[in-house]
User: Fold this.
Amino acid sequence: VRVTLYPLMLRLIGLGLDDLNDISLKALQIVKNADKVYMECYTSIINSTVEQMEHLYQRTIVLADRHLLENTDTLVDEGAQQDVVLLVPGTPLFATTHTDLLIRCTEKNVKYQVINNTSIYNVIGHIGLYSYSFGRVVSIPFFSDGFRPQSVFDRILENISNNLHTLCLLDIKIDKSYYDTNGSSTNRFMSANTAMHQLLEYERTVHSGVITERTKIFVICRFGCHDQSLYYDEIRNLLSTNFGKPLHSLIIPARMETIEEEHVNAFFNKGNLV
Assistant:
C-alpha cells in the first residue's frame, strides 16, 4: 500500500536538459509518490526513453501532446482529485502552455507547484555573458511557402539597436512518435545551419548590414548534455559545420562589455569549439 506523502495538486516538474538522471532528488520523490504522471512531449526533448524513465521513476508515464494540454482541462481536473505530475523537458513555464495551465488551476481553485531545473538560459553565464545584457528571446521558425515572418528579424535588429544580445531558439516539430519510436521521420529539428541561412536570407531582403557572413555568433549544440558543443565564430566559417544531433540554439551578440569579452575569449581560447 502506497502512502500519499504530498497534498493533492498539479505539479510541473523540470527534467533538465540531458537525460532521466537530471531530475532533482526532491522531484524524484514526488514523482515516485504521484497518483498519475504525464510528460509534455512537444516543446523539447530529453535523451532517455519513456521505458527508462518509467523504470527509474517507478511510475507509468502518459505522453501529453499539445491537444491534451491546450484544449482540455484534464490535468487541472485530475489535480483536484489526485496528486498529478507533469514532467517538462528543461524547466517549466518557458512555454505559454505551462503558464496557461497554472491560470486554469487558479480559476478552478486547484493547488499547484512548480519545481524548476536547468534551462537553455544557463548557457548565458556558462559562456561569460551577462543575463541583463540580453533582450527579447527570438524563436526562429522553419520557412515555408509564403511563411517568412519579418518580425523575427525585426526583433533581433531591435535588440541589437539597444545593444542587447539575442538568444535564438530554433524551431522543432515533434509529437508522441519521437518517444514511441525513438525518432520518427515525421519529427523535425531546425539545425544551426538552417537558422543561419534563414537569417542571411532576411538580411538580403532588408539590407540592414547587421547580420552578414562576417558577423560573429555563438552556436550552442545540446547544451547541458554529456556531448554538448559550443562554437563562437563568424557565420561564414560556421555555415558548413556539422553540428551533430539536436537541439541547437544561437546567440547573436551585440557589443559586449569588456568583462564579457574577456570571459568569452578566455572560454574559447583553445579554438572555436568547446
